[in-house]
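Forum: Protein Structure Q&A
Topic: Joint prediction for protein chains with partners

I've read a bunch of threads here and the consensus seems to be that you should model interacting components together rather than docking separate models afterwards. I'd like to see that in practice. Below is the full input, 708 residues plus whatever partners are listed. Could one of the regulars post the assembled result?
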Amino acid sequence: MNILAISGSVRKDSFNTALLRTMQPLAPPEMQIEIADISGLPLYNQDSEGTFPAVAQALKDKVEAADGIIIATPEYNRSVPGVLKNAIDWASRPWGKNSFAGKPVLIMGVSVGKLGTAVAQSHLKQIMVYLDASVIGQPELYFGPAHELFDEAGNLTDVSTKELLTKALGVLASRTA
Amino acid sequence: MNILAISGSVRKDSFNTALLRTMQPLAPPEMQIEIADISGLPLYNQDSEGTFPAVAQALKDKVEAADGIIIATPEYNRSVPGVLKNAIDWASRPWGKNSFAGKPVLIMGVSVGKLGTAVAQSHLKQIMVYLDASVIGQPELYFGPAHELFDEAGNLTDVSTKELLTKALGVLASRTA
Amino acid sequence: MNILAISGSVRKDSFNTALLRTMQPLAPPEMQIEIADISGLPLYNQDSEGTFPAVAQALKDKVEAADGIIIATPEYNRSVPGVLKNAIDWASRPWGKNSFAGKPVLIMGVSVGKLGTAVAQSHLKQIMVYLDASVIGQPELYFGPAHELFDEAGNLTDVSTKELLTKALGVLASRTA
Amino acid sequence: MNILAISGSVRKDSFNTALLRTMQPLAPPEMQIEIADISGLPLYNQDSEGTFPAVAQALKDKVEAADGIIIATPEYNRSVPGVLKNAIDWASRPWGKNSFAGKPVLIMGVSVGKLGTAVAQSHLKQIMVYLDASVIGQPELYFGPAHELFDEAGNLTDVSTKELLTKALGVLASRTA
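Posted by a regular:
Agreed with the consensus. Here's the joint model:
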């Protein structure tokens, strides 16, 4: 069971990327979680579709090959970061070759405030339904404020968060099987 | 009256960019519409905020200086294109220095299908309300299918679309005054 | 295969109700489609949860018993009608006894304009993802303008619409099996 | 300055209704806040538009007469309660006689959880933009968990919440003037 995880933030000490790293050892034994790097993608431009840029094709291939997807998204201006949407736009193209179709998708996020990126996730879930993914609705995963969950070294230390992540991975595994 | 117009598409023959060019001569005499170029922006990264990249700062300065904003957005995967959201994310930062606050914003879009980017615009309007802009609700501007409105050279030729754009520019002018 | 269909409009000559009636004979032989009546529901009030009103309990029982759900929604003010949301609120309660969980849900709508209730459907899909339903993302079913699809007696006569409905029923059947 | 306040919950001990009652004495001297009662409205039915039911007409008249609107909304299934949407649907009709147009609208909500009805408010803000209201984007008003803000008698006791409400009323007053 090959899972591709995408962080919506490209900053070095991103809490969302840290969340994904925390999940790797929590996964059931049959599940491998690889974290994608979306920081090197160009801005999507339909004019480039004929010859997909190599980094965009590499991301698309990883989505295509995955049995399931995890997305940890920050909330920028009450929506999905442009950088994350840009990665999704590349992997959904060209028209008719959307690589998310049929795949189970687990969506989550952590914020410095208490909302836990809930509004951004509502947009992301709509987008993923359109892309014909199998969006996992429950449990919802809204984590925050980050400083109550992570230590100063950026490691997730909150026990109940880890338990919820483990439960969510179980749901993802059952959908992927 | 200095209006900044942003197209959510960076492809060369974008219908949305063409829509903005069509509006320039339709504007009332006191209004100047400048079309921003967002194709050269890097992906937003909070780590770069200390020293804003020059192209991001240039966009932010234009938003800051404008009396009003027009955004013509395509719809990618039933939401705003990543490339457009990325531009908005840059201009909204750093925290506490959101450059859209208080400005009237006119939102529109054209699509090859009949929906006219209505769902993407619903996300964009939410984002702009969060950014404390004065979002113009009516008239709504959902244009499509594009091939019924533009000629083969990519010029908007539909008369009722031009009339609606002229009406919308009047609303923008009254909000900006 | 027992499908419950809900129309978001309670007016007598509703196009959305007509759409559901059109689907009944298009269903595959193993599928029965019953159309629910939501017009007699009281406004949801948490104070009444202890003793669910009989009409609300009857709706909840039908949702509970169904193998799958179809919802045809009008768009009121770019969202789901209050009357439809009220029915969903009843069937989702009391807390912990949400009757939509795990069920495949097919969402559609018809409007007098060209948008085909796309924005309302985007809200409805979010709601149904939260309710842990298995939301069918494709095909999307945005029908309009109604007068091009229905005859004067209110019967759906458009052939390609019927074909798309038949295709969608096939997807629903495969998800329900 | 005549403000109409609408609570999206009709239960007796609603936190959202309590929030509105708390605001009445916090309002600036020139502002009167009347709380509407939406519990007696029938379900909206377009067939009844010719002769608006008296309770619906009474609500519509109050919206029409108000200089500004406050809405305190619970979140039901990550959207606006059906009961609230039903009230908005009535006041927006008949077509062409939407009573919210041009009015400043302040949106808020309180929940038992930490999200403070943020996702429901995102839907409500979209709806109000469509209705051509002047939606106040900042400050955002997401209150919760309720038990940390209200005492056992249901009175809002949290000082910083009262300060934020007072600030928001000031913004509403400046938009209404």
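Residues 159-176 of chain D form the longest helix (18 residues).
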